[in-house]
Amino acid sequence: MGCVHVPTDKNPRAAPVSVPERLPLLQTFIPVADRVAGMRSVVITTSRSRPVRADVLESELADDWRVETHEVDAAGLENASPAELAAAVDGHDALVLRPGTVTRDVFERAPSLRALAVYGSGYDRVDLAAATDHDVVVTHSPGAPGPAVVEYTLAAMTALLRDFLGIHERTTGGEWQAAKSMGRELGRTTVGVVGLGTIGLDVARKVDAFGADVLGYDPYVTGDRSDSAIYPRTDRATVEAAGVDLVEFDALLERADVVSLHAPLTDVTRGMIGADELAALSGDYLLNVARGGIVDEDALADAVAEDRLGGVVLDVLEAEPPTADDPLLTSPEVLVTPHVAGVTDGYLERGARLAAEKIETILDGGRPDTVVNPAVFDEQV
After folding, report:
1. How far apart are the C-alpha atoms of 277 and 295, rounded to whole Å?
2. Which residue in 145, 214, 239, 321 is deepest, having the highest Cβ count within 10 Å?
3. Contact indicator for 5, 35 with CB cutoff of 8 Å
4. What percent of the residues of the chain are helix, what percent strand, and what percent coil, each to the nearest 5?
């Protein structure tokens, strides 16, 4: 059984806390910078399936951080209970979250926590209201996976429009028929981008460079600056300069040949692509590289089974991993990948650097960009 070193009043360096062996062996837990007098410390959650660059995080931390890395073979915080996660975090100033879920119970059990940096863009696994109630600033780094997700999205659009899956199946099945492989050019389509944060806006720019007509929908982009405290750099002028025609959601679904989802998962966006929206996409293409809960997967499975869509790419699903009998896994019209759009060497390094920068800003009393619970600053007044 492995141990993590959690500080106590009597011994701030090393009070071993057992980690149950029932947790998956493939997952690892790394606390960086054991807390000592006058020094600050951060805990990182990681797993082999969702790694981090702990070495980069360590090198980016200021001199007033005590840096030690401990790997616990039997540990795993991705599926840890709130008590187990809180035991690992308590006594530390900050948490870098890659895998794992942070509930209200974790915040209540870890009163020392002041900063939480999501390693990447998705923050739906954090109870933001609880974080605010406990004066914990939560930030994310949509710019970290951005280049990787944009590249994936462009490749996925091309794969759909050129029917790579169908061509591969026919060719390996003995057919060598170019006449059956007529594709569509990206530059001759209308692409609808839902969510114009860092990633969505860059997708729009790249698609515009191909010559496509670009439609965009984001309810937070309404005036000279964004109404969103989460994406403060996305304003109307920036969106229009990217070649995006801002339209209402229904108009985007009606006019677009390809719809690419890049919105965060919130109470507002959950299920925003349902049966009615899929009906509006008849014959068109859908990509979801954001979060699985944005799409009603039962409605999507029905639309695919009835051959009502041109093709689908899903890098995310509501349940990850999905069940073996998930109909979306067996359809030749659906390309499914295991949440890898942002998983590249560049992402891991950018994520580490940005997480370190944001944590230091918070613990130095500053306010980083892309704070996802801005109300915490009102609470601290």
Report:
1. 10
2. 145
3. no
4. 35, 20, 50
Query: What is the predicted pLDDT for the residue at 188?
Result: 98
Residues 260, 165: one domain?
yes
Separation CA 260–CA 278 (nearest Å) = 13
Tokens of 239: 């969106």
- Together in a domain, 321 and 239: yes
Examine the pLDDT at 6 and tell me if it is beyond 50: no
**CA separation for the pair 232, 212 (Å, rounded):** 26
| Residues 6+ positions from 274 with CB-CB distance below 8 Å | 296, 299
Tokens of 300: 């999507």
Q: Which amino acid makes up residue 167?
A: I
Q: Are 296 and 271 in contact (CB under 8 A)?
A: yes
Residue 321: is the preceding peptide bond cis (ω within 30°)? yes
Give the per-residue pLDDT at 50.
Answer: 58
Give every CB contact of residue 106 below 8 A, 6+ residues apart in sequence.
Answer: 82, 85, 86, 89
55 pLDDT tier (thresholds 50, 70, 90): low
Q: Look at residue 221 in the predicted model and tell me its pLDDT.
A: 83
- Radius of gyration for the alpha carbons in the chain, expressed in angstroms and rounded: 22
Find the CATH number of the domain harbouring 226: 3.40.50.720
Assigned domain for 239 exists: yes
With CA atoms as reference, report the closest residue to 314 among 206, 159, 186: 159
- Catalytic (active-site) positions: 291, 320, 339
pLDDT digits (tens, 9 = 90+) for 270-317: 999 999 999 999 999 999 999 999 999 999 999 999 999 999 999 999
Q: In terms of DSSP H, where are the helices of 325-380?
A: 345-363, 375-379
60: pLDDT strictly greater than 90: no
Say what the pLDDT of residue 235 is: 83
12 vs 60, more confident: 60
Q: Are residues 140 and 195 in the same domain?
A: no
